[in-house]
Amino acid sequence: MKIAVFVSGRGSNLQAILESGYTKDIVEVKAVVSEKIDCAAFQVAGIYSIPTFTLSNKPGGKSYSEIISLFREMEIELIVLAGFLKLIPKEFIKSFQNKIINIHPALLPSYGGAGMYGMNVHRAVFNSGDRFSGATVHIVNETFDTGRIIAQEKIDISQAKSPEEIAERVLVIEHKLLPFVLNKFANGKVEITDSQIKIL
Ligand code: GRF
Questions:
Q1: Residue 102 in contact with residue 137, Cβ under 8 Å?
Q2: Number of domains in the chain
Q3: Model confidence pLDDT, tens digit, residues 182-193
Q4: Which atom of ligand 1 is nearest to the CA of 103?
Q5: Residue 83 belongs to what domain range?
Q6: Gap between the Cα atoms of 4 and 199, Å rounded
Q7: Between the CA atoms of 65, 67, 69 and 75, what dihedral angle is there, to the nearest 10 degrees?
Q8: CA-to-CA distance for 7 and 101, rounded, in angstroms?
Q9: Which residues, 6 or more positions from 127, have their beta carbon under 8 angstroms from its beta carbon?
Q10: Which domain CATH number covers 122?
Q11: What pLDDT, on a 0 to 100 scale, did the predictor assign at position 109?
């Protein structure tokens, strides 16, 4: 399965996709896209000789409509947001209906929405005193973190001493959950109907 990965930062989920046993042999990352000119995730792409693209109207950048054409040429089957911070425009979502997924470091529908990214999420979870946190993979729609949920994994954080500790433990879960879901997509084992999303 040919995929593109959208990133904004560190790129540890990108790296997990490239290295996990779930994905290594059946998922091919054809492009890495960011709104940044450079970011650590681009270095990860570089190690694997994956072409990188910057979404920008400045010289050298690409517009969303150029990315749509490019992805059609590349026959991209699924787009994965892995730490991508910008809202995806409507036209882009329409072009890849049910073909854009995101990983979020909490148990949606809690702790999602604008501003709920990175340590903001883990601080909110820590301050809430919740017993569980985890990771969610969901379909991307036109608002932040509200698309239909594909898969979640939860962990007991009742003993966590800090938001940083929660972040660290959730990241370990993310690095398994996202490649697992991609494996299911690649094997045609994600069934999306109007009423439900089922992993077979
Ligand atoms: C992850 O926690 C992901 O869930 C969130 O942003 C973070 C990205 O980390 N959407 P990385 O760039 O994959 O290391």
A1: yes
A2: 1
A3: 999 999 999 999
A4: 4
A5: 2-199
A6: 21
A7: -150
A8: 12
A9: none
A10: 3.40.50.170
A11: 98
